[in-house]
Here is the input.
Amino acid sequence: MNERRRRTGHIPRVQGQVPAGCGLAFSGIFMLGGLAALVGALTRAGGAQAGDLVLPLLLCAGAVWGVVHNMKKSRHQRILAEDQLAKRLEASLESPTEAARVTPTIHREKPVPDSGPGMPARPLRRVGRVVLQSEGRPGCNLVGNFVVVVFLVGAVAFLGAMTWQGLGANHGAGVLCPGIGAIFFLIGAVAALKHLVKGLLVYAGVGPTEVTLSALPRPGEAVELSVSQSGNLRIKDFALQLVCVESATYTQGTDTVTDTKIVFRRQLLRRKEVSTDAVRPLEATVPLEMPTGAMHSFKSKKNEIAWKVRVEVELHGWPDFTREFPFEVAPPGAPEAVS
Amino acid sequence: MSADPLLIRLDSEDNHYQPGEVLSGTYELTDGEAAHPQTVEISVYWHTEGKGDEDLGTVHFERRTGEQGNLPEPAGVFQVPLPASPLSYDGVLVKIIWCVRVRMKWVEGRQEVGAAEFRLGNVAPVEEVPG
Here is the structure.
């Protein structure tokens, strides 16, 4: 039998209330102030008058009351926090989607739409092969970038016109303020335009990257990975990697921030100075070995662990690009879930 | 520091279980003179720790209120089959921790909570990969 003490982590906190610890800290400060004033009054030359002791004694009494009150409050908050945790636990048990989110799903044969940039990431088994779909939606990204460029160029034009008017009227402030704003927006517009042009060039000039697996691997298993890169390209460096990425989403003030870290990376293939065209795409087949003891895919509301095949390509005379192909890794021994 | 009033003992030697195994153990209130609690809650769940906001999922939640008008005993046993996933994980941004929690509540508002962590599976810890 193994005896365990109260946990050290996962102490629930009541939402929307000031922690009782803050009240205790304030009471402590009051107590110190009261004691200092009391000592000061008692050691005053000529002896302490009764009137001099009233304020220090009131401070001390208030501090004692504060300590007692906040200790009660602390106990009450603890009960409330445990109540909230119990409600969450009960609700989480009743919600089938909560459990479904963490169980990886392996999709069996189904009619498969054509793969290509812009398709959502959803691996589908096809004739014994799993075709991985690239992450992200380049078409949507391009539209988003275009809107940003239009907004920034519009802002530059508007502020530029104001600056011009200010120059005409020989008005110093009327030139300086919109002029500085126009310069900032111009810098942003140039950067956004550069990003847009790069995206357009990759979208239009680079052929699709196709990645297939012989099966979805479990930790410790090896499967066959085939990759094909088409298009008229002069490739300087083609790198194929297996990566595991952690993502954590948290609130910071009023913003929601997602942080990501790569926790596993293995080079699967590296080719340098290769040319491809419509007839001769770059094609290769390599083994993909999942490390033993690796984590399975996991996705909850705010946290995610994802396995991906990453393709990083440097080109001669064309923008470099990176494409990622997520796939699901089931836990060892878990039955295959059928979609 | 005083001992915890609510002790949880897991039957595994090292608090390490494999998916599909049965988590079993006992709970006991060390204050032998305490009155019987009004309810005893037993939960087995995972929760995330790390940079992201906390997620949790419950595989077992049980509220014992006693039988035939009697209040529940302040000591008891539990047995819960464990699922295939998520496995315990010690990552950089994300950690997945499994926990069994027992909470006793009395009519007058008093409560005692005990919790014990355990590992599910054999996932190796990871580190951030530079670049």
